[in-house]
Structure formats: structure tokens, C-alpha cells
Amino acid sequence: MTLGIVSLALILTSVVFLGIFSKLLDDIIESQAREINKQIVMNYESYINSVIETATYIQTATIKYDTLTDTKSLDELYLANTEIKKDVVSIVLFNTDGKRVAGSYINPQNKESIKGLSWFTSALLIKEIYHFSTEQGKSIAENKEENVISISKSVSYTAGKNTLNGVLLIELNNETLTDLAKKTNLGEAGHLLILNDKGDLIYSSESGNALMTELSTPIARTMFLGSSKATINNINMYISVNTLIQTRWRIVTVSNINEIRNALTRVSGILLLIFLVAVAVSALVAGLISLRVSHPINQLKTAMLNIEQGDFSQPISVSGQIEIVTLTHSFNNMILKIQELMARLVSQQREKRKMELHILQNQINPHFLYNTLDSIVWLAEHERNKDVITTVVSLAHFFRISISKGESFIPIEDEIFHVENYLTIQNIRYVNKFTYTISIDERLNKIKVMKLILQPLVENAIYHGIGDEEGHINIRGIMEKDFIVFHVINTGYGLTNEKIEQMYETMRGGTERPSIGIRNVYQRLKLYYGEKADMTISSIPDESTTISLYIPYKEEIVR
Amino acid sequence: MKKIIILLCIMLLSSCSKRNERTGLFVYNETDPFMQVFAGQIMAEADGKFPIQLYYAKNSQAIQNEQIEAELENNPSLLMINPVDRLGSYSIIRTMKEKNIPVIFFNREPLAEDLGLWDKVYYVGAKAAQSGQLQARLVMELFGSNSNNLNELDKNNDGKIQLIILKGEQGHQDAETRTSEVLKSFQENNFAIDLLAIEVANWNFNEAAVKTQKLLQKFQHEVELFISNNDDMALGAIQTMREAGFLSDTNNDGHVNKYDHLWIPVVGIDGLEEAQEAIASGFLYGTVKNDSKKMTEVMIELSLILLGKKDFSSLSVPLVEDKYLWIDYSPYIFEEKR
After folding, report:
1. 192-211 in chain B: CB under 8 A from chain A
2. How far apart are the C-alpha atoms of B175 and B256, rounded to whole Å?
3. Per-residue model confidence (pLDDT) at position B3
4. B320 phi and psi angles, rounded to 5 deg
5. In this complex, do B91 and A243 lie within 8 Å of one another by their Cβ atoms?
């Protein structure tokens, strides 16, 4: 996600940058090409102006000197100007008939044809301008073989008293044009063309086989002003066209912009590289950041899920982002507080429960007392004094042990004695409807156990075990590994499995009426002796029912 | 997004409206005082009629070409061009024909051959020949209008006018025409002249001032008249002459004393503001006004026609050969109050 955004931003930036850069570069290329063209044009203009200056000077001189009398000085002036300038091939003044008046000597074979030459006729046709032409080809002057540019103009000259009309011809070679072209840098395969008003190629700076010129000339021919891009021979060229002063010619610069284009491509490459590196770096950074941020958050999440499932045991340890660590600390503190509160709550509940059960254990079933007192009354009425005494004594013992000076734990022999008293009373009351036996391992006698745990079981045994036939109750106390085990067995019909299940449920918290005493014992066992302590009920149908207590011996001391 | 669309709409609309009327005005050089005033008049007259943009080319056709190209980016509907190089007009006309943008050339006449390349090319200007003729007429009137009996300004009384011509650029169309026409007019009217010198001063004040110094040294009091191809050179010559003690207010009437041997009449062409001031104070005898006001008026008329706001019947000057609108020169001298 982060990576996506970063990439997108980078791509956008790159594209925008490239776009702007490309546009800017195009502008720069364009303006540079134009500037080069302008510079070239200005160089050529100043050259042409210098030629025109020479022509003007000669014109002025031509008017001053009389061609009839000052022929020699005029010739000298013409010659001097021809010789001073390396690009001037010849300077000649003709009369309107095409006959030489002054200046360089004409090649004899040209003498008669001057009047028909194009530079001559056009000079007479349009008098006010200089005519530039390359149609002549080779110079008309004697002993000159060069190809020339002919510059002709209608001029006035003095012949005695008269001012006559004539044609001035200045022939130039390509030397200065070439020199000027050499000075310009139009890039590889870049070149300079000069076209005349008919679109004919007058000059090309390209040396050799002029392949590029051949391709660029047709394009240049269609342009008169301004610039355009073109691909010539697979090279990107920028073609600028300008006018050449004093002529109707066009000067065309064909500059190679490939080199600059290549620079753009290079820059694009670099930009791409930068982009990729940036993406990689940001990916790395984003990864690190998410590791630092999300990893601790994930740890915290796992820990919280554990806690949600009730596992408070493990303190969370998270490393990484400082904020998350702080959060974790706070969370840990909170968990500790919760644990503390929960522990306090549990112990409070337990204390409360103990209190309740303590009250319960001290409670003597009032029915038992009424019944016993009833039976004492009944014995007394029948004058069974001995039984009265036995019953009253037993009752007294029974209560003494029940109270036990407020102690909760009493030696097992006391507990047994308590049960014996109870059995004695019940036996008298039920008129020997049952017999009982008690067998206790002597080692147990002095061990203290929670008091009043056997009596409810015995009460239950009597209640269930006494029927039409004489019942028997057997109470046994033994050591079994780490446990003190009491079995209270009574004869009788036994219990169905359903009944047993019902009793278990009652013990564990149900409120079924009949076995309230047993439930008390069970719960007190668990409360005082912990999870290891247990009470089981088993039964053999039509024979007997056994309730057994298992008291962990090592933990006989109240927790 | 909405903003961009609105912006695009505005751009489209505005580019459309530009296409309708925008005009480019190109003048060969800012330092030519006549052209500067002229351009100012055109701008003032066009104001409120159509949008116009002025360019000065620093006397370089290459720069003017560049400016024209730049203006083409704005999709102009009309170009008014005072070319640097009359022959450069060839490429300009070919280009504008391709783009179908009409052109009014003014005050420097392209070749007829080039103007003939396209029918939406016009020329507004004065005939150079006329300026020379009017200049000659001013002179002839000054010298008494009678070729057989020149007045007292023929100081040596030889029946000929000893004159010096200050010529513009040698070979320049206007310089050649003005020079030859003034001479031709004298000849036609049988005024005998003694041409002491034709000095080329390239239209330039300073050059004329320097060259006049040499001429005065050479000819001293022989000179009876200076004819200049333009006002600027005339004013240059006047400056030198004043430094040499000529043209002074010998009778202290606040005006150069015309009837003094130190007075040499000078005539110019163009009718520059400075020239008119010099005429008012008597330094310059007269000039032939190249009527830039009238030219401006006609150019604006033609512009409105080419922009489709008026038709050809609204022209105040006849359209010659569907191309030329010729504006007359007018002689300008000091009107003495009697």
C-alpha cells in the first residue's frame, strides 16, 4: 500500500519532470538552433554588407572619375579592390551594350556574349537592386577558372560631360562563404544551404558526396521562413530558414539535434535509474517501518487474544516502536491489576463460602434434637431409665463434640466418637432396627480432620439403610497412600445409577432437597482440602451403598 | 477539473477572437526618428479598432524575420511590415501566402515582382520620385522661379545654382531616386546647376555633419544650396554650418537672417518634428513631408478592409494595380507673417 503510493508519486513526478524537461529541452534545442541560424545569417549579412560597401565605394568612385580621361586610375582602383580581397575574382564596369569600360579584362571568348548573360539583363531590368546570381558558373574574366557568384548592378558613370548608364559586375568566389560556413557548428552531418528565389541550390557547406544536401534541399525548398524538425537519413535535424540581406536568397541551416536528443535519452535513463533506486529504497524503508510498527502490534494482538481466552499467565513482552512498547507496558500493568483483583475476588468468595459452611456445620439439625428429646420422653414414660441415661449422655457427648470449643478441626477419634454417640441415640430411637460396625486404623486416631464430616453420611446411611429388614452400617477409616479414606457402607436396596448421578449433581451445587447434608460435606471438603479431596458414591443394587471420603493427608492443615 | 475546463474554454475563445483581429506591426528600426513617430501614429490610430503589437527590428532582417515568426505564434490576421531589406520581402510574402495572412508593406517598397506573388499583399507609401520633384520645386521657387533670371540667392550671379547633394546610402533605391529626380527636375525646368558634390552620408545625422565640415572647407562660400535626401542629414549639415558661423541671426529678429551672405538654404525630405522646428527658426529652409499622418490613415483604412470590417470603397486613396496606395508628399516651408 505504502509502496504503491510511493511508486505512484514517484512515477507521476518522473513523468511530469520528464515532460517538462523534454519540453524545456525542445525549447532549448529550438532556440539554440534559431540562435545559431541567426548568428550564421548575421555573419553572412555582414559579409554581404561588406561586399555591398565595396560596390558602393566603387560606384562612388566610378562617378568621380571620367572614364574617358581617368581610365588608368579607374582601372587601378578596380584592380586594387580585386587584389586586396581574396574572395573577389573580378570587378568590371560595362556599358549598356555589354562592352567593358573599366576593370578586369574579359576572357576573349566571353566578350561578345556579355549582353545576353542573365546577370547583365536583370541588372538593366531592375536597376535599384543588386543582383546576385550563380548562373554564370565560371568567371568571365581572363585567366580565372573559378566558379563565381555574380553581383551586378545598374550604375552611372561619367564619360566626359555625360553621365551614362552602365552595369557593374563583381564576381566572388566561394571562399568566404565556405570560411563562414566552417566557423559554424551545426553538429555531425549538420550543414548550411543557400537557395535562390527559384529554389535552386546555390551553395552547400557539405563536403564530399553531398548526400545530406540531396535529402535536405527538397525540404528546405518548401520553407521560406521559420523552422521545422525533420528526420534526414535517420538523423533528427532542425531546419531553420532565413533571408539573406540584399538578395532574395534563403539561407538554410540544418542542425543535428540528435546529439542533444541523445542527452535527453541519457537523462531519461538516469531518471529511470533514480526512480528504480527510489522505489527500492522506499520499499525497504516502508518494510522496516511496517516491521517496527506492525510487528509489535501483532504481538500485542496475540497477547490480547490469549487474555480474551482467559490466559492471564503470560506477561506480554513487545519490542520495537516506542509507542507500542509503552502501550504494552500499560496493558501489562492493567493485566496485573486485573489478576490481582480477580485473586482478591476469589479469596473473598472463598472466605465468604467458608463462613457460610462454618455456620452450616455448627448447625444441628433441630429435627434430630426434637426427635431425640421425644425419644427420651418416650423412654422415660416407659421407665427405661438405662436407655434414658444412655441417650442423654450420648446427646451430651454429641453436642460437646459438635461444638468442640469452636474448633473446626478435631482428631479423628473425636469425630468417630461423635458418630458413635449419634448412632447410639439413633439406635435407641429406631429400636435396634440396624446394627453398626466401626473399624478405624489406629494410626488415624490423632490426626485432625474437619469436624462433622461423617455424621451427615451416617445420617444418610440410616435414612436409606433402614427398612423392614435389619440394616447394617459399616464405617471404616483407612490410610490409602496420601489419603485418609472413610467408607460409610449401608445395606439396603442400593441406589440406581440415575439416583447416584442426581446426588453428584446435588453435591456439586444443585439444590435437590434430600441430600443437603451430603452436599455440605462435599463442599466443605473441597473448600478446605482443595481439588484433591473427593467424595464418591457407589452402590451394589439390592445389597449396599457406599459413600467414601478421600482427604489428602499431607494437606490436612487448613490452607 | 471544472476550473481547467473553464480555462480551456477561455483559451479557445480568446484564441478565436485573436485570430479575428490581431495585427502585427513591424518597423525596421527604432532609432529612425521618422519611423518612430510613424509607428506611434499607427499604434494610436489602431487603438480601439483592433489589437496591434509593435516590433522594432534593430535594422536587421534576421531579427525582423524572428519577430514575424514569433508573431505568427499568436495567429495574427494581418501584418503591417516596414521591411529592413526590401528583398527579404520575397520570403515573407511566400510565407504569408502559405498561411493566408494578408500583408501591408509600407514605406519601403518591395520589388513589384515580389508583390505580384500574391493578391493579398499591399504597399502603402510615397513615390520617391515625387519627393525629389517637390524638393526641386521648392528650390526653384526659392531662387525666384525664373530659370533665366535667378534672384539674389545666386550669390556669384553666374546664372547657375552651386549645389551640394547629401545622398543617402549609395545604391539605395530612395537615395538614387531622390537624387536623380531632383536633378532631372532642374534639367526639365531649364535651371542651370553646378553640382559641386554628391556626398554619401548614409541617411545619417552625424555622418552628414562630419562630411559637411569637409565640404565647407573645400567650397567655402561657393555653395549656394544644400539638398539632402532626408531631414536627418540636412540637420546634421546645419549643425556643422552653424558651428562654422553660417545661418546666424545677424539682424537679431529671432530668426535666421535669410538675406545674409552667411545664409545657405538647406532642403530636406521627410518632415521630421525636429526639421519642422528647424524650419520655424529658419535654420532649415524647407522639407518635403513624407506624410506619415496620411499614410497612417490609409493603412488603418486598408487594415479595417482586410480585417473584414469595411470594404474597398471606403479607401480615401485610389488603389493602383490592386496593390499600391500612393500617398503624396507635400512641401513644407516657413510661412512668413507679413
Report:
1. 198, 200
2. 29
3. 55
4. -100, 130
5. yes
**A275: confidence class by pLDDT, cuts 50, 70, 90:** confident
User: Do B141 and B186 form a contact (C-beta atoms < 8 A)?
Assistant: no
Res. B301 pLDDT band, cuts 50 70 90: very high
Out of 3.40.220.10, 3.90.220.20, 3.40.50.410, 3.40.50.2300, select the CATH number for domain B21-126+291-333: 3.40.50.2300
How far apart are alpha carbons A198 and A224 in whole angstroms? Answer: 11
A460 touches chain B (CB under 8 A): no
Q: Which residues of A309-335 are buried (b: 16+ CB within 10 A; e: fewer)?
A: eeeeeeebebebbeebeebbeebeeeb
Domain boundaries, chain B: 21-126+291-333, 128-289
Q: Residue B16's pLDDT is what? A: 44
Give residue A556's pLDDT: 45
Hey, what amino acid is at A153? K
Residue B25, SS3 per DSSP: strand
* Residue of chain A minimizing CA distance to B70: A226
β-strand pairing of A88-95 with A162-172: antiparallel
- B/e letters for B203-224, b = 16+ CB within 10 Å, e = fewer, are bbbebbbebbbebbeeeeeebb
What is the value of ipTM here, to two decimals? 0.77
Q: Residue B81: in which H helix or E strand, if any?
A: strand B78-81
Residues of B in contact with A44 (CB under 8 A): none
Residue B322, classed as helix, strand or coil, is coil
**Ramachandran quadrant class, B200 (left: phi over 0; alpha: psi -120 to 50; beta: rest):** beta
**CA atoms of A559 and A166, how far apart (whole Å):** 146
Alpha-carbon distances, residue A356 vs A288, A349, A539, B200 (angstroms): 60, 11, 31, 140
Q: Using the predicted structure, report yes or no on whether residue A37 has a pLDDT greater than 70.
A: yes
Q: Comparing C-alpha atoms, which of A130, A144, A111 is closest to residue A52?
A: A130
Partner-chain contact B63 A246, CB within 8 Å:
no
CB atoms within 10 A of CB B266: 29
pLDDT at A123: 92
Same domain, A296 and A401: no
For residues A330-351, give the mean pLDDT.
Answer: 87
Higher model confidence: residue A331 or residue A550? A550
Residue A132's domain comprises: 48-176
Q: Do A63 and B198 touch (CB under 8 A)?
A: yes
B193: three-class secondary structure by DSSP: strand
Whether B91 sits inside 8 A of A153 (CB atoms) is: no
Q: Domain B128-289 is of which CATH architecture?
A: 3-Layer(aba) Sandwich (3.40)
Residue from A51, A151, A225 whose CB has the most chain B CBs within 10 Å, to mutate: A225
Distance set, CA A538 to CA A466, A503, A535, B59 (Å): 18, 11, 10, 131
Pick from A176, A209, A238: which residue ends a domain? A176
Asked if the structure places residue A313 within a domain, the reply is yes
Q: What is the mean pLDDT of chain A?
A: 84
The amino acid that residue A456 corresponds to is: P
Residue A232 has pLDDT above 90, yes or no: no
Grid cell 502585427 is found at: B24
Task: Pick the residue from chain A with its C-alpha nearest to B61.
Answer: A245
CB count in 10 Å sphere of residue A109: 9
pLDDT 10s digits, B99-136: 999 999 998 889 999 999 999 999 999 988 899 999 99
Alpha-carbon span A487 to A551, nearest angstrom: 12
Question: How many beta carbons lie within 10 A of that of residue A512, not counting itself?
Answer: 12
Chain B hits for A57, Cβ within 8 Å: 170
Residues 216-255 of B with CB under 8 A from A: none
For residue A277 the three cell numbers come to: 533506486
- Minimum-distance CB partner of B85 among A126, A241, A243: A243
Pair A77, A162 in one domain: yes
Q: What is the mean pLDDT of chain B?
A: 88
